[in-house]
Amino acid sequence: MEAASLPAALELAAGGGAGLSPEKRAVLGASLLLLQRDYRFERVWFWGCIQGVRGAYYIAEGLGPDRAAPRSRLYSLNCVEWSLLPPATEEMVAQAEQLKGRFQGDPSFEYEHIEINAEDAERLFEDGKEPTIKEEARLVATIEQIDRAVGIIPRGAFVKTPLGSVHENRNFEGLSLTEAKKLSSYFHFTEPFNLKNKTLLEKADLDPSTDFLDSLEHDIPQGSWTVHLEKGDTVVVLRSLLWLGLTFYHVPMTKQYGYVYFGTGEKNFDLPFML
Amino acid sequence: ERAHGPYQPHEPGYGLHQPGHSPYDDQIPDPKSRMLAIQNAKAYLLKSSTTSGLNLYDHLANMLTKILDEQPTNAVDIIENISKDVKWAQFQKKMDTLRDEHEILPTFEAAEKRKALFLKENGEGDEELEEEIGETPLPNVMETAFYFEQAGIGLSKDESYHIFLALKKLISVQPIQTCRFWGKILGLDMNYIIAEVQYHEGEEEEETEEEEVIEEGGKRRAEVEDEDEEKEEEDEPPKSTYKPPPVIPKEENGTGANKYVYFVCNEPGKPWVKLPPVTPAQIVCARKIKKFFTGRLDAPVVSFPPFPGNEANYLRAQIARISAGTHISPIGFYQLAEEEGDEEEEGGGGRDTYEENPDFQPLSVVEMVDSLSTWVHHVQNILKQGRCVWLNPFQKSEEEEEDEEEEKAEEPDELQQEIGPPLLTPLSEDEGIQNIPAWTAQPSTNLIPQYAVAILQSNRWPGAYAFASGKKFDNIYFGWGHKYSPENHTPALPLPVQAEYPSGPEITETRDPTLEEELAFKAAKEEALAAAEEEDDEEDVEDDEEEDD
């Protein structure tokens, strides 16, 4: 969610019982602005909070001029001091996927006994170390996974310019109530996978400036998103069942939207059994 | 040389490279030809489009008017969008010939319902007001919400207030002694808001009457069926000898897992629905399945092992499990009530009543957070059987303890009596999951420790929270209603296939006799036959001889 609209947004996304204490809210207002100044971000998003066993990580993302470029991610344990996270690599993501269980809450904690490729194993054994992965890397990989899988925006909120960069659409006035209830009005804000697989008929209806991302319609398994109208049908709230804790809110016919994650940072592998 | 004469103002190429003429020659123009050019250009712009009936002149005029009125930044970058908007507005106007019906959005109905919560019921006099201000079972939801908010837990203030009013409505309708906002469980289509309630004593008898009526109706139906069966004299397929394990009866209302009654509603403003009491079979099954709630109480729960009930029962079972696992209080707040009776008569069930300790001295927040032994469970643990008090299903209902001991020796199935931790056990006894402790304790703020609140989060039931601050404490649940398990959920495997029939000698296959055995058997048979014939012949001969005489 946008740092500028944080207080209002937290009220709208609080249906699941998770939020921030007044202390954190107050300090975020100031520290996110300072982040914007220090790192020269154009936009700062408060991404959410991952609960560890002994502490919690608060995550912020910074965007540059091209909103679709890889975002810089920062974490903090107390919302005051922020540290930049390294960019996520495929290797990190692959290793982190094998880890199970909660986050510990300590960024330097090392997980042991992970399996990696034979080549890497040989390399590491030469050094005499057992394969370990630090919690910081797991954090980076988890945030990347969540963003890739369930980071969503409403259709039309971003436009792609002919030069290829992505900007906010100044003409976006919000989805209408009927549109807001449909899953096809929301896109994954990440590299599209299925766009090329659409039939020619479907492609003909697409507007290349706004429809350049995958919609939620074809997410597997079907039903992995719940769509609720809350606060007397004035806010549309989407919750992901694959990553429990991801909440997306949008007030129809206004420009307010955003998503935030409050959870333990674990994928819900039992989803097919639970539906 | 050019064959073309001097260029006229309206011809393309006018003013360009012309020997003897420079582009600036027409600054002192021939007024007539210039006016003609302007008129031609304007006439071209005013030409209506054959497809849409618009013309470029009007469109450009509208667009520029709009731009000048609104003065957007970087107008040149969004000029196409502005043009599209202006065209769109054109089309809208044409529809004005039809009367616009005021759109009745569904939001309006929802707003009506919410407004109804805020209206005071009519007919209240001053007496009612006094009653309200006196002791009321209504909990102070906003106060609890404030404490939880210090930890970042809780719903938005609007929603909390709506729930507050909805609880007030519940209390005015039902005869309730104590009431508490238990929490919110999220679902696929709708969510559940849950209130934990205790009736006044004596108000619950209505339910048991209903249940008896249902049972009698069932008996009558069973009798009718028996009669029908007797009439049929045909051969029936063999009846199965499967005896299902005995059904463990549910606990009485007001005790054990059914100590509290729960009401749910989907949204504040909608009517409250009472959840049925929970049976041990439901709890046992709920432990094996993991399903999302849909939000409709009558939805079936499709699972394996098949859940005995619908979503209302599953919800009630999960609420019972969550309450038993995560409802905690600071040590010393509750104390065990003094019992007059003999402990032996309870059959080892343990004490299940507690009362508030009038001499409670609250511990400091630092102490509450540092050690888990300063918190205790005040809800009875649910045993594996599904009840809080263990019941041997094989015993007859009116047995005394002495008879029980004798019979236990005789029964083939010996069920071990299950014992759980007694009431008011401290949290330090709670097992963690792998290397994660069962609870995470934190103060709400490190910056202002004087006014911090101790917050506990459960790791076994993610979403269960408890706070304590001085003499105040409370528990709450916000979540999807499932237990945490680091391993993936493995559904129960189906039972092994039952033996269809007992295998005895009459149906066991025997080996077919070989050729030699058959021949030998045949030969033996023939010998016996021949021997028998000889005897017959002799008898016949004797008979004949007798007849002759």
UniProtKB/TrEMBL annotation, chain A:
This is Radial spoke head protein 9 homolog. GO terms for biological process: axoneme assembly; cilium movement involved in cell motility; motile cilium assembly. Belongs to the flagellar radial spoke RSP9 family. It is found in: Cell projection, Kinocilium; Cytoplasm, Cytoskeleton, Flagellum axoneme. It comes from Circaetus pectoralis. GO terms for cellular component: axoneme; kinocilium. Keywords: Cell projection, Cilium, Cilium biogenesis/degradation, Cytoplasm, Cytoskeleton, Flagellum. Coiled coil: none annotated.
Automatic annotation (TrEMBL), chain B:
It is found in: Cytoplasm, Cytoskeleton, Cilium axoneme. One of its GO terms (biological process) is axoneme assembly. One of its GO terms (cellular component) is radial spoke. Its main location: cytoplasm. Residues 202-215, 224-236, 338-347, 398-416, 532-549 have a biased composition (Acidic residues). Keywords: Cell projection, Cilium, Cytoplasm, Cytoskeleton. Residues 1-31, 201-253, 338-358, 396-429, 526-549 are annotated as: Disordered. This is RSH4A protein.
